[in-house]
């Protein structure tokens, strides 16, 4: 059974549905994106998310922020905070765990809670207002937490680029897991280096002989 049809109005390119839940007793037109979707029938739920929150927890949402928004709109904030402060400090400031941060960095993460997204943007605004950028070495050392004097980034290489770090980290893990391969690689590289220097020496001595 599909249930009774409900009216959806279109205004300025957005669709609205009437909600008559506990927050909107008089009936209010709410954007369709603010409604949940029924799992089975894929139809919109009858009350908006904020009203469903009231129904569930017997009180209105703390800051009026309920539901999710698209993650792709906020990934820039994740990247920027990470590059300015480092992952660990960024987690601390936003008030989320490491696992959450890792998930956000992944392209498979599609949505983020509105409340968390708001915190993310607020943190970024604060950090930007202070002009806070940390030196890569200070980030890796955790200098601010140890109460040490932080370095000041001057050149571009002083800035923290996460891609570089995850690369070194994956290399370190690989070395740990494949000690024999690592050893073999080292031996091969050494042989190559020695062969190269020997060839250079031979070339030089030949050049000397020719000159003489
Ligand atoms: Zn409502």
Number of helices: 9
Bound molecules: zinc ion
Q: Strand share of the residues?
A: 5-15%
The N- to C-terminal Cα distance equals: 101 Å
Number of domains: 3
* Secondary-structure-derived class: alpha+beta
Unreliable runs: none
Largest sheet geometry: 3 strands, antiparallel
Read across the widest sheet, the strand sequence of neighbours is 1-2-3
DSSP strand tally: 7
Following the backbone from N to C, one meets helices and strands in this order, namely: EEEEEHEHHHEHHHHH
| General form | elongated
What's the helical proportion of residues? Answer: 40-55%
Radius of gyration: 29 Å
The mean pLDDT is 88
Outline the structure in words.
- The protein is an alpha+beta fold.
- The chain has three domains: about 10-65; about 70-160, no CATH class; about 180-210.
- About 55% of the residues lie in helices and about 15% in strands.
- It has nine helices and seven strands.
- The protein has helices spanning about 50-55, 75-85, 85-95, 100-105, 115-130, 135-140, 145, 160-175, 180-210; strands at about 10, 15-20, 30, 35, 45-50, 70, 110-115.
- It has a three-stranded antiparallel β-sheet with strand order 1-2-3, with no helix packed on it.
- The longest helix has about 35 residues, at about 180-210.
- The relative contact order is 0.07.
- Bound molecules: zinc ion.
- The site of zinc ion has 9 residues, from strand 5 and helix 1.
- Zinc ion binds near residues 23, 50 and 51.
């Amino acid at each position: 059974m599909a249930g009774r049809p409900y009216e959806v109005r279109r205004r300025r390119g957005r669709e609205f549905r009437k909600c008559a839940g506990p927050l909107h007793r008089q009936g209010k037109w709410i954007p369709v994106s603010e409604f949940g979707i029924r799992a089975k029938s894929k139809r919109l739920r009858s009350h908006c998310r904020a009203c469903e929150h009231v129904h569930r927890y017997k009180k209105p949402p703390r800051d009026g922020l309920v539901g999710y928004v698209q993650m792709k709109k906020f990934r820039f904030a994740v990247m920027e905070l990470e590059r300015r402060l480092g992952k660990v400090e960024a987690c601390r400031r936003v008030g989320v765990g490491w696992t959450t941060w890792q998930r956000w960095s992944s392209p498979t993460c599609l949505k983020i809670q509105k409340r968390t997204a708001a915190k993310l943007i607020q943190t970024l605004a604060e950090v930007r207002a202070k002009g806070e950028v940390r030196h890569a070495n200070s980030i890796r050392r955790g200098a601010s937490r140890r109460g040490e004097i932080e370095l000041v980034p001057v050149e571009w290489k002083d800035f923290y680029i996460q891609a570089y770090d995850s690369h070194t980290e994956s290399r370190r893990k690989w070395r740990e897991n494949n000690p024999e391969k690592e050893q073999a690689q080292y031996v091969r590289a050494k042989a190559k280096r020695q062969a190269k220097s020997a060839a250079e020496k031979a070339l030089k001595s030949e050049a000397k002989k020719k000159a003489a």
